[in-house]
Amino acid sequence: MKKRCLEALRDLIWPAVSGAVLVLAFAPVNLWPLSFVAFILLFFSLNGVSSWKARFLKGFIFGLVFFLGTVYWVIHSMYFYGGVPFYLGALVTLLLAAVLALYPAAFAVLGWLPVCKNKWVRLVFVAALWVAIEYLRSILFTGFPWVLLGYSLASFAPLTQTAEIFGVWGVSFFIMFINAALFNAVDSFFAKKDRREAVLPLAAAVIVFVVFLVYGVFRMQAVDKEVLSWKEYKASLSQGNVEQSVKWEASEVLTTIEKYRALTKEAKNSGADIAVWPESAMTFYIDEAGKLTPLVTGAAKENNIYIVTGAPRREFNVFKKEEKFFNSAFMIDPSGNITGRYDKVHLVPFGEYVPLKNILFFIKKMTAGVGDFSAGEGYPTLKFDGARIGTLICYEAVFPEISAAFTRHGANVLVNLTNDGWFGNTSAPYQHLDMTRFRAIENRVYLLRSANTGISAVIDPAGRIVGRTELFKETNLTLPFRVRPEGRTFFSRFGMLFPFTTIIISVILIILGRRKNAVNT
Q1: Can you give the residue ranges of every domain in the chain?
Q2: SS3 assignment, position 194
Q3: HSE value, Cβ hemisphere, 13 Å, CA-based, for 336
């Protein structure tokens, strides 16, 4: 009995350790090589387990540890800005991690089905299944594509360049393929059979790794050479560092405006062509006639500079007697005219609206100031001299399909306006930045990121950070960037083709495997 309990405990510890190791591969620790071996203990714990319930439990434990280690910051946001007691915030975070853990649990159940005896097909199946399940996590229940496996390599650009073809999904596939191949190699080596069988999967892992690395190195060199022919501008990312707890208070509006006016004057003195202010930098309706609007538009006119700023917007339907609010971005030209607008399409649950209000009545929206926001429609670009800007507001930067949609609509530079102030000094701002880097690679454009409390950054088309700011510091980051004249990447055109393909592959192999198993039994 004691031996059986110890074995059961060991089987549960291995998935937990596996999940903990994967946490270390992500920001802010960024031990990216761990992502290639993080799943091996989980695979060993699943190997030979026939019970789907046992596999489910192992996958669930892996997922629970991993998501608690990467999205723990939800407690901070709910406690400090959601008006939720700490214990309740901890419970909500635990529930969120438990829901997210269902995805790796499903992977553990399905990944060990007898789909095929061929080891090479199984390698492809395991990698494809992981991507398929990651994609489902990205779209179900408004989607939560946070810390997808591919993002663990953000700090090592040479291994992320295939994102221009397959997106972050392709990098996730690559990492999982390496994990599965290494597991097969180790398993074969320690098995009592011919240990030479370990050579082939090990060789496959090495070859695939080298191919990705070589491709990345050569593509980065090619992109760097191409970028030299693009027209150069200078951007200044204004980081106001306005405390989230007072950001929406009426008494702070004038102080905030003057802060950004001063930062914009500094930007012009530094030679900037455009000043980028963060999400909701202005907490009033700048597109409505009022005494405060000229102070904002005047900052552009006085300094002869373009300004992109975040601000709320409202619409009133006279017939329906309905008022709607939007989280928007505005373009102001050097003449002081508002020449463009984008209304955020993908809203943040609990940040910009509270889902299931009748049930979650005890949670208030963390973005104060106005009522629940409504989703915008379409992907209009903001025109700036020879550039067309695709604007990603906050959370939208973690959705690959949104930046690809902007590129298809003509965007040749991306701007990310965000307010990460409600993350505090947790891992979230670092994770958010790393995920944003992939949008530059996928579309091969520069990305300008302006964050209220940081981290603001200029990211080049190879996903490298050209320059960045520190957290919780009022500053300007002024750096040159270049605008892609024309052209779209394969991902920009057919971004969702790869995850759809992995879903098809997974479904076909599962069905064939189940039928074959049914015939054999």
Answers
A1: 1-112, 114-229+495-521, 231-484
A2: coil
A3: 10
Find, among 317, 318, 314, the residue nearest to 328 by Cα. Answer: 314
Report yes or no: 34 and 21 within 8 Å, Cβ to Cβ.
yes
Question: With contact defined as beta carbons under 8 Å apart, do 280 and 312 qualify?
Answer: yes
Residue from 420, 450, 393 nearest 276 by CA? 450
Tell me the C-alpha distance between 254 and 245, whole Å.
Answer: 16
The tokens describing 180, both together, are: 């599965």
CATH number for the region 231-484 comes to 3.60.110.10
CA distances from 280 to 239, 242, 243, 421 (A): 12, 11, 13, 12
Task: Report how far residue 335's alpha carbon sits from residue 5's, in angstroms, rounded to the nearest whole number.
Answer: 75
Taking the chain (521 residues) in runs of 10, the rounded mean pLDDT of each run is 63 93 97 97 91 94 98 88 84 94 96 80 94 95 92 98 97 97 90 74 94 98 97 97 86 94 96 96 90 95 97 83 90 96 87 57 53 86 94 95 96 95 91 98 98 96 97 96 92 94 94 64 49
Reduced 3-state DSSP string for 12-54: HHHHHHHHHHHHHHCCCCCCHHHHHCCCHHHHHHHCCCCCHHH
- 314: helix, coil or strand? strand
Task: Please indicate, yes or no, whether the overall pTM of this predicted structure exceeds 0.90.
Answer: yes
Cα 101 to Cα 231: distance, rounded to the nearest angstrom: 46
Q: Are 455 and 471 in contact (CB under 8 A)?
A: yes
Taking Cα atoms as reference points, which of 437, 441, 461 lies closest to residue 449?
Answer: 437
CA angle 496, 340, 251 (to 5 degrees): 110
Catalytic residues: 279, 344, 394
Helix/strand/coil percent split, the chain, to 5? 55, 15, 30
Cα distance between residue 166 and residue 499, in whole Å: 8
Give the span between the Cα atoms of 304 and 309, in whole angstroms: 16
Q: What is the SS3 assignment for 379-401?
A: CCCEEECCEEEEEEEHHHHHCHH
Spatial separation of the C-alpha atoms in residues 441 and 326, rounded to whole Å: 29
* Cβ atoms of 375 and 349 closer than 8 Å: no
| Distance separating the N- and C-terminal Cα atoms of the chain | 32
Amino acid letter, residue 435? M
Between CA 423 and CA 426 the distance in angstroms is 6
Beta sheet of 338-343, edge-to-edge order? 338-343, 322-332, 306-317, 274-276, 231-239, 475-483
